[in-house]
Amino acid sequence: MTQATRELSSTKRDEFVKGGRLTHGAFAKTAEALDVSARAVSYTWRKFRNDGTTKSSKTGNVGRRLRYTSQAIQQRVGAVPIDQRSTMRDISVATGIALGTLSRHLKKGTFRRRSTRIKPLLSDANKLERVQFCRSRVSPAMPAPAKPKWFNADKDRRTVYLLPDEAPQRRSWKSKRFIPKVMFLAAVARPRFDEGRGVLFHGKVGMWPFTSLVPAVRSSRNRPAGTLVTTLVNVNAQVYRDYVINKVVPAIKASFPSTNKRVILQQDNATPHRSITDAELVSVSTDGWTFVVRRQPPNSPDLNVLDLGFFASIQSLQLKKVSRTVDEVIQYTLAAFDELSYEKLESVFLTFQAVMRLVLEHAGDNNFALPHLKKAALRRAGLLMSNVSCPVSLLL
């Protein structure tokens, strides 16, 4: 009998022990069927009768002894300052433990890998504004966050998965400064059922590029002079006011449910955005609609639904298409905005509510990780909450 068949696997041990009883001639038949000795079969049966298990007692008691236990690894790694643990090689040099050993314990869960991002530094006044902002979200008015963002045709680093005989596509630009990019203004609201129209309001109010069509001054190999060319527009206070008054507000009136016509335009504190005031919105507050503007707290991108995840979702879809021109960036970005489902926007609003609760729990600070609510799994199970609960004590 070879070395490989001297020990029975757990599966083979269970093959001849059925319900705690053996048939006549089971030892010989089992030994022949499994190509093992009758002694191995007899030993396995006695062990089952005595211990109630067929598991080998050698498991964990044979082989080379571990040089480092999990506790020893944790003690050595914990003794290294956190700022000196940025790479596995740094940890290996600082602790004297081999890279392979550290990799196995990382996979085992002895220690873990986490990435961090720089967060805005908040003053006491900023924290107070954040708390007041979150408490004001209890209002029945419908908030409509609106914010500009740059969308690039390409990004510096892309990750792809290739077959062994494949090579990644070559990507090249004359300079990173020449990669086409376009600034868009997007406005969204929380999806809800429109009782008046009897349809679902998907929450995507609209998305508009800050561009204009200008005749080409001179001819080139791409087009003759006089051809209309898409040109980026410098976003100043006048341009931003024009977009909000003539694009965002009409889109809200056309798409919002009409059961509640009080709309809060949420904006950040960029200089052009200050041109939109409640007085500016009086002229468009007609037909029963009331528009007011509220600014999110300074240094608080986590209190804007668009920055919190919706822009990232759009860009992940937009970058799946290769763009070489400004027109293609506009085409693919607007297509991604239309393609994105209302469920994604609903999920971001739930995350927004969870973030506001964390802001209240931390007295306005931002020293917390973004919450993971397992929304996709809950939605598949039909258990997704409609709102994130918040204790009344945090609102007082």
From TrEMBL:
Superkingdom as given in the UniProt entry: Eukaryota
GO molecular function, one term: nucleic acid binding
Matching PANTHER family: OS01G0541250 PROTEIN
Protein name in the entry: Transposase Tc1-like domain-containing protein
Organism encoding this protein: Aphanomyces astaci
